[in-house]
Amino acid sequence: MARVLVLGGAGYIGSHTSVELIGAGYEVVIVDNLSNSSLSGPEGVRKITGVDVPFVECDCADPQALGKVFERWKFDAAIHFAAYKSVPESVSEPLKYYRNNLDSLVTLLELARIQGVHGIVFSSSATVYGQPDILPATEQTPRLPALSSYGATKQIGEDILRDSTAAYPGLKGIALRYFNPIGAHPSALIGELPRGVPGNLVPFITQTAAGIRPELSIFGDDYPTPDGTALRDYIDIVDLARAHVAAVNRMLASKQKSDYEVFNIGTGRPVSVLELVNTFQRVNDVKVPFRIVARRPGDIAALWADASLAERELGWKVERSLDQSLSTSWAWQKSLAQQ
Ligand code: UFG
Known about the structure:
By secondary structure, the protein is an alpha/beta fold. The protein has 11 helices and 13 strands.
């Protein structure tokens, strides 16, 4: 049985990916420093899968600590989720972002190379595209200069993986450019756990519906879009998790066309903020009070994916609808209230 190291596996995307990897027959080891997650991640993974998944609490940027993990287990592949992800925080604390997000990746690659790991999957982001002139964005759409240090760490992370896989024979890499992940596992045992006031739309909506926030602010209705609110591509977390399984399968089956590949992971369907709020209200039969306010600085008008390359090459496709994602998001929010 092939073994996969999931760095940052206690978090939102990492915990869902761990579940899907185990479901696909992989052995998983979760490593996380719990800086933006909690033990409820690995515990939820164990409950859902019935597997006693090993969890190691350690700083993924610390070569000694991560080295110990590599002494204990031999890995066939590794997935790097161990990164900070707040855009505004990255603007006020750039060094924190460069240090953590890049050091943890370099440390992983150094160890992976020495220990003969075959492939690395890197969590990249649609943010590398900025606001493209032509939509949907394909993998050939130019990367624009990053608007935040967070975005810069994703671009540099891709380059680090590209250069490393070019230089070190036997090491393969896949970068997955996520669009907007939403939803939760249908068991409601794992989901997104935002700290403080959520910056992302769906956690803010679920907290507003739950009465934790009085109202949602919709940032701008004067964008050049059909209803004036911004367009994004919201991808279900379980579908996104399964894209990682497909990427690991591809690397381990030596099906890659080159040492380093990039795939967009999105639905290909643009959804406006208003459409998302209205869909959430309809699907869950719950009210979300909202008010239109000024645009949020740094936001782009529209971004959605052409994910046909992932469909063709990874054998992956979107299986969950927006309705389903918004229903699991709400179930997860309600389960938090009962804990
Ligand atoms: N929005 C609101 N109100 C809120 C929160 C968000 O109207 O309270 C709007 C935003 O203005 C945007 C849309 O909802 O139009 C989606 O916002 P999110 O913050 O959920 O997602 P973004 O597309 O802004 O952020 C995503 C990723 C980041 C990435 C960023 C780059 O979550 O990781 O794109 O722009 F860096």
